[in-house]
């Protein structure tokens, strides 16, 4: 992410996603935010621009970041580490794949600390194990 001061306005933050999509947020001096998404076929053409009040921006941050109120959130630490239970749907890209083949940590920065299947748990699953990443009932 890059940061650009905008004198008299605030600060602009630019992000390019893993899929090479461009997003920007202008943090206005009054606390409001402008969120912009750019077209994939023309990264200089804005496809969506939303002006958010300070309260709306705070609500969006709450939706994007897990909070202690999330039913799936298991634990957070002062180091910023988070443990969360995530169910894998039958239609998920991750369903049924060998954990070592998913490149999950490389692609997402996520570490799997356990795989739960019905009443069974596989703690600290090995990346090269023959066990599958998940099943629909996980």
TrEMBL record:
GO process terms (BP): potassium ion transport
Domain Potassium/proton antiporter subunit KhtT-like N-terminal: residue ranges: 2-66
Origin superkingdom: Bacteria
Full protein name: Potassium transporter TrkA
């Amino acid at each position: 992410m890059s940061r650009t001061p905008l004198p008299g306005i605030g600060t602009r933050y630019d992000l390019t996603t893993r899929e090479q999509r461009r997003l920007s947020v202008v943090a206005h001096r009054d606390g409001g935010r402008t969120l912009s998404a750019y077209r994939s076929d023309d990264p200089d053409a804005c496809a969506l621009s939303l002006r958010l009040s300070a309260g709306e921006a705070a609500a969006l941050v709450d939706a994007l970041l897990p909070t202690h109120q999330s039913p799936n959130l298991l634990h957070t630490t002062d180091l910023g580490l988070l443990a969360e239970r995530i169910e894998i749907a039958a239609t998920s890209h991750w369903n049924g794949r060998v954990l070592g083949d998913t490149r999950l940590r490389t692609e997402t920065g996520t570490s799997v600390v356990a795989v739960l299947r019905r009443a069974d748990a596989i703690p600290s699953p090995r990346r090269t194990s023959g066990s599958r990443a998940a099943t629909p009932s996980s």
